[in-house]
Specification:
By secondary structure, the protein is of the alpha/beta class. It is 47% helix and 17% strand. The strands form 2 sheets. Strands 1-2-3-5-7-10 form a 6-stranded mixed sheet, sandwiched between helices. Strands 4-6-8-9 form a 4-stranded mixed sheet. α9 runs antiparallel to α10. The radius of gyration is 19 Å and the shape is globular. 36% of the residues are buried.
């Protein structure tokens, strides 16, 4: 059943999603993609932070290439569109997504890391785009990596097909932190719990702003204007900003304030 391909654990406003095809390196077949889309919809209500990880030794090995080969034989060419829509849904989701990269993250696994808002890698993580080895440009992993890394570093991964480890991914800025393997899930969950204490309207607005600047807004004045409009929109939807500023002005600490 597709439900068995994705484990969902709820911890208050935090959810942990675990890809559960360890014998296939958590490659995303159609059933797994469908399960993930359904989970994303279900987690729009009351979930503020989502940890994404994989069962076994892999985070996600990308698309299920064997299934894609069968699809081509039958004329079914929807897999790439389906996978693109899943990743776009993560970017458009109001919750903050944290990738807990526990092992192999190849092709589409790289895309998942890139579309997550934050990422923590295990020292055992191995990230790469092998598509050049079969005469293919990584159609989703390539663009998302090029949006995330400098040109030379993105080119290194795309043109050589070489993998990088978790420490290198941290050094390059592809993930926020690299931690010992046994500490990975606790570290990711700790970040998720910190994020989940903040106002959901503000989190969603900040997430949109991070995507908009500098991707669509590139000059300073327009960026500052966008910032003011973002805060005005937050004030229209929630009293949290007003209350938080009042406490700050009175010398009281807000939840999560002042932590490193």
């Amino acid at each position: 059943m597709s439900a068995d391909l994705l484990k969902i654990e709820r911890r208050g406003a935090v959810a942990v999603l675990t890809f559960n095809r360890p014998d296939k390196r958590n490659a995303m077949n159609r059933a797994a993609r469908t399960a993930l889309r359904k989970a994303l919809e279900a987690l729009k209500d009351g979930t503020r932070a989502v940890v994404v990880t994989g069962a076994g030794e892999s985070f996600c090995a990308g698309m299920d290439l064997k299934e894609q080969a069968l699809d081509r034989e039958t004329g079914n060419q929807t897999a790439n569109t389906e996978w693109r829509d899943v990743n776009v849904a993560i970017r458009q989701h109001p919750a903050v997504f944290i990738a807990a990269v526990n092992g192999f993250a190849l092709g589409g696994g790289m895309t998942l890391i890139n579309v997550c808002d934050l990422a923590i890698a295990s020292e055992k993580a191995s990230l790469g785009m092998p598509e050049i080895s079969f005469a293919t440009y990584p159609g989703l992993a390539g663009p998302s990596t090029q949006l995330s890394l400098s040109r030379k570093r993105a080119a290194w991964m795309i043109l050589t097909g070489n993998r990088i480890d978790g420490r290198t991914a941290e050094e390059w800025g592809l993930v926020n932190r690299c931690v010992p393997h046994e500490e990975l899930l606790d570290a990711a969950t700790e970040v998720a719990e910190r994020v989940a204490q903040f106002d959901p309207v503000a989190l969603a607005a900040c997430k949109r702003a991070i995507d908009t600047i500098p991707a669509a807004v590139t000059d300073w004045r327009s960026a500052f204007d966008y910032g003011e409009l973002t805060n005005a929109a937050i004030r229209e939807q929630t009293e949290a900003q007003k209350g938080g500023l009042a406490k700050f002005g009175a010398g009281e600490r807000n939840s999560g304030q002042g932590r490193s």
